[in-house]
Design goal:
binds flavin-adenine dinucleotide; 3 domains; eight-stranded mixed sheet; FAD/NAD(P)-binding domain; cytoplasm; single chain; alpha/beta; 15 helices
């Protein structure tokens, strides 16, 4: 349509005829067959200015759409942020590029593109604090590393305390985090209000705010950009990202070792297989006869109509069960809880979202008249201790990265980084060494649920 109007105007203005010719040449450049094997185009001020002049028609595809090869050194099941990050670090840190990421739908279409994007590292136990802080440090340089703007915004995450138990628990977090070199500070109710002006701290409400723990380096990022940035970076180094390719079986040899995966696009042989399938992990691992200590629940989120910037940070409240931030588009991004029963339906109960909205209106009465625009759900994979599982499985050549439950987006870079190490070397990275599958047999749990009861 745009080219046709250009053509009409070109009759009157000869310089536009040149533009029409350029547009046709660009269309040829966008053909995936033409693009295959081309080096990744870098984003820079110079390329942005050039495209601004050219009408942003020349950016091209950001990653290829290859057919699966018969065999790879590593096959990753699941094209969410964690799977794509794993592929990226396999290529960049370990030089392993004969890698395929198999995604049954579209990349980032699982929980990666459905979450409320809260990023923080103020977990209680040393093991978790090291893991999430490793991720947070990678977040801090991620846009530069990927040459892709993941819109990481360190606007601060404020966790509200409403009672004596909250105060004790959050102060314990503050001290534990500081001992681990992680920023976290205690604020009085008035300091909370100064940091987040829309907050109602009047004492005569059902759950008065009595203080809060603030991690200033925490914040949000644009979730689908994270998937796209890792996909682009991995693809440029030779990783095949194969969408619409569902894994339907895991083939094992006589010794029991995994040798490849059956897919909707045929059998693919693999030296090593990494399963990173979030809510579907139990299903994929069952294909290799491995029973996982996981339960899959729908978790919901919702956004309001867009409004002017009114909300400067992220606020979470466990006691009232609500958390909220504002997106760059202006929508209030609100996270709800999980359903109380397991399910693979990517939608949850209406009563869960209405309960959350009740809680939001309790803490921010000025939002009572806002209209909600849309809601959705994702399937989260929850372990008994609410900590992830990253490592080997009882099946040789089969590795798993799962159990991130309601809070794995924040871990994406760190999770991919340590899982790539595990896949490349066959051994855990020191940071993921405690997060074994067999801790549920040995009892060495990392019980963040009991420590904090914080979902995200
Ligand atoms: C509503 C909601 C809010 C959340 N809020 C936060 C938050 O604020 N902060 C936070 O840190 N975390 C949050 N989370 C959790 C976070 O989104 C996840 O922990 C994280 O995104 C998991 O990433 P992933 O790459 O492992 O999974 P996914 O992004 O789900 O990727 C797994 C992929 O595997 C694919 N797959 C599954 N089975 C197969 C198969 N058989 N063959 C091929 N592919 C397959 C799926 O299609 C999917 O794309 C939230 C989650 C939800 C649902």
């Amino acid at each position: 349509m745009k080219d046709r109007s250009l053509l009409r105007r070109a009759v009157a203005k000869p310089q536009i005829a040149v533009a029409v010719g350029q547009a046709c040449r660009r269309t040829q450049r966008h053909d995936p067959a033409v693009l295959r094997g081309r080096p990744m185009r870098r984003f820079s001020l110079a390329s942005l200015l050039k495209e601004a002049v050219d009408g942003h028609q020349g950016w091209g595809r950001q990653w290829r759409a290859p057919d699966p090869k018969p065999a790879y050194d590593v096959v990753i099941v699941g094209g969410g942020g964690h799977g794509l990050a794993t592929a990226y670090y396999l290529a960049t840190v370990h030089g392993i590029t004969n890698v395929a990421v198999l995604e049954k739908g579209w990349i980032g279409g699982g929980n990666t593109g459905r979450n409320t994007t809260i990023i923080r590292s103020n977990y209680l136990y040393d093991e978790s604090a090291h893991l999430y802080e490793h991720a947070l440090k990678l977040w801090e340089g991620l846009s530069q590393e990927l040459n892709y703007n993941v819109m990481f915004s360190q606007r601060g995450v404020l966790m509200l305390a409403h009672n004596a138990h909250d105060v004790q628990s959050f102060k314990r977090h503050v001290y534990a985090n500081r001992l681990n070199g992680i920023d976290n500070e205690w604020l009085s109710a008035e300091e909370c209000k100064a940091f987040c002006p829309p907050l109602d701290i009047s004492p005569d409400v059902r759950y008065p705010v009595v203080g809060g723990a603030l991690q200033r380096r925490a914040g949000t990022a644009r979730h689908d950009a994270v998937a796209w940035g890792y996909a682009r970076g991995a693809d440029a180094r030779g990783v095949d990202i194969i969408q619409n390719c569902e894994v339907t079986g895991v083939r094992r040899d006589a010794s029991g070792a995994a040798t490849g995966v059956e897919t909707t696009r045929g059998f693919i042989r693999a030296g090593r297989i990494g399963v990173v399938a979030a809510g579907n992990t139990s299903r994929v691992m069952a294909m290799a006869d491995v029973r996982m200590p996981l339960e899959s629940y729908p978790l919901q989120a919702l956004v309001s109509e867009p409004v002017k910037p009114v909300f400067p940070c992220v606020v979470m409240s466990n006691a009232v069960h609500a958390y909220i931030s504002q997106s760059d588009k202006g929508e209030l991004v609100i996270g709800a809880g999980t359903d109380q029963y397991t399910s693979y339906s990517q939608q949850g109960g209406l009563h869960i979202t209405t309960h959350t909205l009740d809680a939001i209106c309790e803490i921010f009465p000025q939002f009572t008249r806002m209209r909600m625009l849309r809601s959705w759900g994702g399937i989260v994979d929850v372990t008994p201790d609410r900590s992830p599982i990253i490592g080997r499985t009882p099946v040789d050549n089969l590795f798993v990265n799962c159990g991130w439950g309601t809070g794995g987006f924040k871990a994406t870079p760190g999770s991919g980084h340590v899982f790539a190490h595990t896949l490349a070397t066959g051994q855990p990275h020191p940071i993921n060494a405690p997060f074994t599958l067999d801790r549920f047999r040995t009892g060495r749990l990392i019980d963040e649920a009991a420590a904090a009861a914080v979902a995200h």
